[in-house]
Design goal:
Layout: E1 2-6, H1 12-22, E2 28-32, H2 39-55, E3 59-62, H3 72-81, E4 84-87, H4 92-101, H5 104-113, E5 117-121, H6 123-126, E6 129-135, E7 147-151, E8 156-161, E9 169-170, E10 173-174, H7 179-185, E11 193-197, E12 201-206, E13 210-213, E14 219-224, E15 230-234, H8 238-246
Parallel strand pairs: 1-5, 2-3, 2-4, 4-5, 6-8, 8-11
Antiparallel strand pairs: 1-12, 6-7, 9-10, 11-14, 12-13, 14-15
Helix pairs in contact: 3-5
């Protein structure tokens, strides 16, 4: 297993470490753009992501165009030949709707469970986990909304949030609570642990776990105690990360 979750912000250091772990000469990246809700978002994020992987010296291709439903044959072929699947950020509920329209959801779940490497940022970072804590609004400054909990692929345990230090916009201005504040206040009863990644923080989960923290960012482990309290702990280093996901 090799799962890279990028909380937001700069992606290159975490992706570079992931590619070095796989081996650049063996890395063939499949980009999954299913979280892009508009053509303009797709047209901006996809070329940027392709250029990023090119700068890292690896070949990347895109699974589908905006609004396109890839065939079952294409899904299995492309996932089968890829050594790394990278999921672009965007809107989590929209992403899950698109994945479930075809066999893509189950194909991804099977591939990651069997050890296929995955990386993702924002919504893409949440995908492999049991539960995703997300701002599900496509127009947060124009409509009333609240955070949602959405089922992920359940390859990794726990609930996870990205942009944990972010204060999202609403029609009435910026929220007073951060994403992490909201997660702690509404921690799902069925989850015993969680992960919160600030912008600039990334975790790489696998045989050789790695913690990347840029610009003073932090990654947090959340755990429910026997007294039903949720305790928050800063993930100190890669060894700490290893203990969390091998406990």
């Amino acid at each position: 297993m090799l799962i890279t979750a990028i909380g937001g912000g700069v992606k290159k250091p975490a992706l570079q470490h992931t590619i070095e772990t796989i081996g650049a000469e063996h890395t063939d990246v499949l980009i999954l753009p299913s979280a892009c809700t508009t053509q303009s978002s797709y047209d901006k994020k996809v070329p940027t992501t392709l250029a990023l992987f090119e700068s890292l010296g690896v070949v990347a291709s895109v699974l589908h165009g905006y609004g396109e439903r890839p065939t079952t044959t294409r899904i299995h072929h492309e996932i089968g030949r890829a050594s790394l699947i990278h999921t672009i950020g965007g809107n989590s509920p929209y992403m899950m709707e698109r994945l479930r329209e075809t066999v893509l959801f189950q194909a991804l779940k099977d591939a990651l469970t069997e050890g296929k490497a995955h990386s993702g940022i924002s919504a893409g970072a949440l995908l492999p986990f049991q539960s995703m804590h997300s701002n599900g609004s496509r127009r947060p400054q124009a409509e009333d909304w609240d955070f949602q909990f959405i089922d992920g692929l359940e390859v990794l345990p726990g609930v996870v949030t990205a942009h944990a230090d972010g204060h999202d916009q609403t029609p009435y201005g910026q929220r007073s609570d951060s994403r992490m504040d909201h997660l702690l206040a509404h921690f799902p009863a069925h989850n015993t642990q969680g992960l919160a990644l600030e912008n600039g923080a990334s975790v790489i989960i696998g045989d050789e776990p790695e913690l990347i923290r840029l610009n003073g960012s932090e990654a947090y482990h959340l755990a429910r105690t026997v007294d039903d309290e949720v305790v928050t702990t800063v993930i100190e280093d890669s060894e700490h990360l290893r203990r969390i996901f091998t406990a």
